[in-house]
Amino acid sequence: MTTAKDIMHSGAQWIPAHETLDRAAQMMRDHNVGSLPIADENERLCGIITDRDIVVGCVAEGHDPSRVTCGDMAKGTPRWVESDADVDTVLEEMQGHQIRRLPVIENKRLVGMISEADLAQHLSDEQIKAFVSSVYAGS
């Protein structure tokens, strides 16, 4: 059985909720990623910040990314899967919530992220087609 841990990109980094968006952008640049999980003071997942969130939700609205925190931008209930979740569970979570990036948790700690690129490398053409159809249907 293929698990979330088998297909995830390991080495994902948290960004603390109190950090500013300019710091998040720097971390994204340094790690060559488009999103970062946001951690609260107890290192619990409280959201995900994307490069698009920074541009559209902050800069385009005329806000200063050096003054807005990641926690300010965290909205909704963050979605995640355990590292031992099977691929069907991963797909159900991502498709059911129309999300493109999914944190992977093990022993209450972030161990990786699953992105569309990870799915493309590990899934069948039929699974990828179903994923794309459901996640992008409402876009």
TrEMBL record:
Pfam families: CBS. InterPro entries: CBS_dom (IPR000644), CBS_dom_sf (IPR046342), Diverse_CBS-Domain (IPR051257). Residues 8-66, 73-130 form the CBS domain. It comes from the Bacteria. SUPFAM superfamilies: CBS-domain pair. Keywords: CBS domain. PANTHER family: CBS DOMAIN-CONTAINING PROTEIN, CBS DOMAIN-CONTAINING PROTEIN CBSX3, MITOCHONDRIAL. This is CBS domain-containing protein. It comes from Streptomyces litmocidini.
